[in-house]
Amino acid sequence: MAASSQAWGSRVGLILAMAGNAVGLGNFLRFPVQAVQNGGGAFIIPYLICFLLMGIPLLYIEWSSGRFGGKFGNHSTPYILDSMVKGRILKYIGVFGIFTNVAVAAYYCYIESWTMSYVYHSLRGTFNGMSQHGVADFFNNYVDISKSSTGIPYEAVVFYILCLLLNTFILSKGLKGIEKVAKIGMPLLILFGAILAIRGLTLGTSGASELFPNANAWDGLNFLWTPQYDSILDLKVWMAAAGQIFFTLSVGMGTIHCYAAYMNSKDDIALNAVSAGFMNEFVEVVLGSLIVIPIAAGYLGLDWVLENAGFGMAFQTMPYLFQQWGPMLAAIAGLLWFGLLFFAGITSSLAMGTPWIGFMRDEFNWGQNKGAWSFGLLILIMGLPTVIFFQEGVFDEYDYWAGTVSLVVFAMLETILFSWIFGMKKGWAEITSGADIQVPLIYKFIIKFVTPVMLIIIFLGSLFKPLNNDWSGNVSSLLSGNGWSLDNGSIIKTITHAGIKEKIMAATDPAIIGQLESQILYLNFARILLLGLFVFISALVYVAFLKRRREGRATL
Amino acid sequence: MNTEALITMITTQGIVIGFTGYFFYRVLTTKPKPEPDSYTENDDVVERQPEN
User: Would B5 be classed as within a structural domain?
Assistant: First the structure.
């Protein structure tokens, strides 16, 4: 029988849940845009190299750390790390593994609620007859919570709360609920994606119009896949490839640890980890590259795609493109597209709930229901500001600090802890224990030396991001003694709101100056919320430590 | 599509599909370990019970 009361139903269910955790909106929206912006077909070379040198090692590290911690009854990163490395401080690194999930889930559920809402609007025919501008405006009105497209007051908030309730209800059913959603959601996602990908592959020039006479889907595919080999020597491309691998696999979050903690110590993780990892790559490289870019290029032309490629295309462009197929097919395509984004989203957001629930159960004996509903409440408190103050930048601020910086910091620290403090001897034994495939020995070297160095470079690259993201130019400038110019998107300059302050200095209109100054206030408010959350979780870890010490369970 | 893009796309997607398919095939065909294991759905399979 299974080792604990919370357990996975089947091996396939576990792999689908892990793959569902990794597959997210970024597979369909971020990957093709990154490829377009970084050398087309040549991007895939650094991308696959980074997958082998950083992605797979991080998967091994997180799966094996989780399973190791699970042996001691720990199902969240603070005490998983505590069981691996003894030290009173080190467990607080694991706070990132709960913090990131709560903070990311807070705004991620908002995107997920957009997909729910857009499925509804696609089926209802809201976008019928709308111009491209009209569809883009629809989105802008939707996120302005004072406006409503359905007559429901505060529609965006209502959909957000509905989405949150759905997540919380499924989480209250435990791992079985998550596994069921993954078993239904992942095959449907692949089916929906495959149908749209076939359309992307076969669209050709049939979408050309008077307005865009040169539109051709194959132009999009040509641009995406023609290798521009000179870009391989550009450091910017390597940073982008490493960043994409990092975010697509959902590493550095603490969810993989949590899922793996429910495994028996003699069961395989080596084959499971690569299976889930490659399933994510399949969705990203095969399906993700064949939908947005070719369909958009097929109706709007490659030039439009190159100018407008970005996250907004999913909601501001795709519904308009589907309209070109007639009302019935547009409704079906909208269902498929926003349905697949919904499944990609919910399988990830459910994963984000498990570390908090696991932590509260392990440390304070909370039941599954209490853990799930407290998570829902926490997300509501943290998430409502991202919904209400979306246009003031609170959403993006969460995404930057929790969804970008926090992941990199945690992954870097956990890799160093695993490779150098837990030690590769024990680490390698953990990875290979019960393995159903032979893990190449070279990975022992890669995990110890290559992966930590790559993560340190990514972290330093984010901290000191060069002006205009011009890596090669800034490295030459530094070597020739002309210094290093920081970009406003670097962590250092972001902390001080350097970009907004520059705009204030350049502005002359008092109204614009006032607007920018109030934006800084909103961003600081978002930071206080995030910092407050981190301190709150750290305090809980400390209280748990005191409780463990009273019970004689503390490791130090 | 131009030939270079087509070759790059087919090669890359072929590699990814190949590895995904291979690993998933291994998952489906590898004999499960005897009880107790991590999964509940196979708990009652007679031939997988631990030997006494």
Answer: yes
Q: Is B14 within a domain?
A: yes
Distances (CA, A) of A403 to A97, A247, A550: 12, 9, 36
Q: Does residue A290 have a pLDDT over 50?
A: yes
Concatenated DSSP letters for A435-464?
Answer: -SSPPPTHHHHIIIIIHHHHHHHHHHHHHT
Q: Is A275 within 8 Å of B38 when comparing Cβ atoms?
A: no
DSSP for residue A287: I
Nearest to A286 among B16, B37, B40 (CB): B16
B contacts of A7 (beta carbons < 8 Å): 38-40
Q: Do A9 and B43 touch (CB under 8 A)?
A: no
pLDDT tens digit string along A149-207? 666 778 899 999 999 999 999 999 999 999 999 999 999 999 999 999 999 999 999 98
Partners of A13 on chain B (C-beta within 8 Å) are: 39, 41
B1, B23, B36 ranked by CB distance to A271: nearest: B23
Domain A11-391+421-445 has CATH 1.20.1730: yes
- Domain span at B5: 1-26
Model confidence band, residue A3 (pLDDT cutoffs 50, 70, 90): very low
Helix A451-463 and helix A56-71, axial crossing angle in degrees, nearest 10? 110
The CA distance from A433 to A57, in Å, is 16
What value does the mean pLDDT take over residues A459-471?
90
A196 has a chain B CB within 8 A of its CB: no
Cβ of residue B27 closer than 8 Å to a chain A Cβ = yes
Contact yes or no for A454/A242 (Cβ under 8 A): yes
Q: What is the pLDDT of residue A556?
A: 66
Identify residue A443 by its one-letter amino acid code.
Y
Say how many domains are in chain B. 1
Q: Is residue B50 part of a domain?
A: no
Q: Which residues of A touch B11 (CB under 8 A)?
A: none
Q: Which pair of tokens denotes residue A121?
A: 């609007």
Tell if the CB–CB gap between A266 and B33 is shorter than 8 Å.
Answer: yes
Domain boundaries, chain A: 11-391+421-445
- B12 CB neighbours in chain A (<8 A) are 41, 44, 48, 225, 285
Sequence-distant (≥ 6) Cβ neighbours of residue A396 within 8 angstroms: none
The whole-angstrom separation of Cα A489 and Cα A463 is: 9
Q: Tell me whether residue B33 is in a domain.
A: no
Q: How confident is the model over B19-39, as pLDDT tens digits?
A: 999 999 999 999 888 888 889
pLDDT in tens, A379-436: 999 999 999 999 899 999 999 999 989 999 999 999 999 999 999 999 999 999 999 9
Helix (H) or strand (E) holding A425: helix A424-432
Which alpha helices (H) appear in A91-234, and where do they start and end? 96-124, 132-142, 155-172, 174-202, 217-225
Q: What is the DSSP letter of A153?
A: T
pTM of the entire predicted model = 0.94
